[in-house]
Amino acid sequence: MRFLALIFLALPAAAAPLSRDTPLLQLRLEGLFGQPTTLLGVRGGGGVGLGYRMTDQLWLVADVAERPAPGGGITSVAAGLQATLDSTPVAPFLELTVVRFSNRLALGYSLATRTGLGADWAFSKAMALGLVVRTYTPFDPEGNNATLAGLEAVVRLVFTPGAK
Predict the structure, then answer these.
(1) Domains of the chain, first to last
(2) Is residue 7 helix, strand or coil?
(3) pLDDT confidence of residue 16
């Protein structure tokens, strides 16, 4: 975890400035599949997110997602940073966010860090298809249960309005 924090601290200093006509916003539609907690089985879900480009490599990101669960759905709201490692047609990235969950009874926690590793494949200037693997580490597990954690895979469609 400290290694990722050091990467996120080093990237802003190394990032190239943006040119004037670079689009700054992205819309991300996500299909989720995984186990958000060790207390529940594998389940699917969906979400929508936004990215705001601060530099050539660093993005502010936020998303909202929903998954089915006993006692109602599990809604998550996340915000954090994404660091793009290389801006080629296939752009690998790291993300680090803080996530707030609803339905603490089903999950066993309500606040977590989310670490993701993925890549987006730009098949046009305005569209990309991505794959992300994310892990969840709770801040507030019930009964100090150290085994509570989550893992999910995400397929996402990324739309960049204004890309030419």
Answers:
(1) 23-159 (2.40.160.20)
(2) helix
(3) 53
